[in-house]
């Protein structure tokens, strides 16, 4: 069966520091991968999605970037964090565009 | 782009009663409508979904209805139990696995 791993679960980082969140999927190949952000008490906003290695689409302009160095690995990064980057970051995958999307357990990022 | 509105934002029900959450969407091309349940500190979990060629779908105590003409869909939970307490999100997309646009979420509290 397929599983998605996302780490770390929680992270506290100072303003101006770099960020790297990692997500990996097991049990499938060439999945669609997504990064969402959830602000406190609000819905989920799509940040990036990828349909293949090296293929990244950005949905909103921001201080973050994403990369997909391997088929089942999706990384969310920032060179310098802002206070406004705080939130709950969720990675998701789907087998292809016609199957359901499944979420990881999320990373709670607090920028101080 | 797509816009999804979800109501109510909070819902308190007595154990055993029914709960109904409603969502409207703006893009008539959307044809996939999933519902996710998110427990505190965890990632959203898909609980039921419906495609535009179906008007209603049921899975035990959970049912979803879709009215494509009016562009709205609803989640119905019958015989609510305390473990149904969570935040529920509706979403819409052009296809399963495609980019999801989420509603703002409904916090459901089932009182014993």
Describe this structure in words.
The complex is a heterodimer of chains A (112) and B (112). By secondary structure, chain A is mostly beta strands. In chain A, strands 2, 4, 5, 6, 9, 10 and 11 form a seven-stranded mixed β-sheet that branches. A four-stranded antiparallel β-sheet of chain A has the order 1-3-8-7, with no helix packed on it. Chain B is mainly β and 112 residues long. In chain B, 0% of the residues lie in helices and 54% in strands. In chain B, the strands form two sheets. In chain B, strands 2, 4, 5, 9, 10 and 11 form a six-stranded mixed β-sheet that branches. In chain B, β7 and β8 form a beta hairpin. Chain B is globular.
Structural class of chain B: mainly beta
Provide the β-strand percentage band of chain B.
over 45%
Distance between the termini of chain B: 41 Å
Percent strand of chain A: over 45%
Shape of chain A: globular
Average pLDDT value of chain A? 91
Largest sheet of chain B: 6 strands, mixed
> How many whole angstroms does the radius of gyration of chain B measure?
13 Å
Query: Order of helices and strands of chain B, N to C?
Result: EEEEEEEEEEE
Mean pLDDT of chain B: 94
Care to count the β-strands of chain A? 11
Contiguous helical run count of chain B: 0
> Structural class of the helix and strand makeup of chain A?
mainly beta
What does the radius of gyration of chain A come to? Answer: 13 Å
- Helicity level of chain B: under 10%
Please name the defining characteristics of this protein:
heterodimer, A: about 110 residues, mainly beta, 7-stranded mixed β-sheet, 4-stranded antiparallel β-sheet, about 0% helix, globular, B: about 110 residues, 6-stranded mixed β-sheet, 5-stranded antiparallel β-sheet
């Amino acid at each position: 069966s397929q599983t998605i791993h996302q780490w770390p679960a929680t992270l506290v980082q100072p303003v101006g520091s770099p960020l790297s969140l990692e997500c990996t999927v097991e049990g499938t190949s060439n999945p669609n991968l997504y990064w969402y952000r959830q602000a406190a008490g609000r819905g989920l906003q799509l940040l990036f999605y990828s349909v293949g290695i090296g293929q990244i689409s950005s949905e909103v302009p921001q201080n973050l970037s994403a990369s997909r160095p391997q088929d089942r690995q999706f990384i969310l990064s920032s060179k310098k964090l802002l206070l406004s980057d705080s939130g709950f970051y969720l990675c998701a995958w789907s087998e292809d565009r016609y199957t359901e999307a499944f979420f990881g357990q999320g990373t709670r990022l607090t920028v101080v | 782009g797509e816009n999804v509105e979800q109501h109510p934002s909070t819902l308190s029900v007595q154990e055993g009663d029914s709960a109904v959450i409603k969502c409207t969407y703006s893009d008539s091309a959307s044809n996939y409508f999933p519902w996710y349940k998110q427990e505190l500190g965890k990632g959203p979990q898909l609980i039921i979904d419906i495609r535009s060629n179906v008007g209603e779908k049921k899975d035990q105590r959970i049912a979803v209805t879709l009215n494509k003409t009016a562009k709205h869909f609803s989640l119905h939970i019958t015989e609510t139990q305390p473990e149904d307490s969570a935040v529920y999100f509706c979403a819409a997309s052009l296809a399963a696995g495609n980019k999801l646009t989420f509603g703002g979420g409904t916090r459901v509290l089932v009182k014993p």
